[in-house]
């Protein structure tokens, strides 16, 4: 299964359908466009 890693609160907002666009500096492979992927909520330690 393919997974995208996101920091909170963005991971939850995408999972709930509140945020529907994730902008990255790189384009995803064409074969993943429109496919279902898992969301990994990464733990972020504040500085």
Give a brief rundown of this model.
With 47 residues, this protein is of the alpha+beta class.
Largest sheet: 2 strands, parallel
Approximately how much beta-strand content do the residues carry?
15-25%
What global shape is seen?
globular
Task: State the share of residues found in helices, binned by percent.
Answer: 10-25%
Radius of gyration: 12 Å
User: Would you identify the regions where 5 or more consecutive residues have pLDDT less than 50?
Assistant: none
Strand tally is: 2
How would you spell out the order of helices and strands?
EHE
* Straight-line distance between termini: 32 Å
Domain ASCH: 4-40
Protein name: ASCH domain-containing protein
Organism: Candidatus Spechtbacteria bacterium SB0662_bin_43
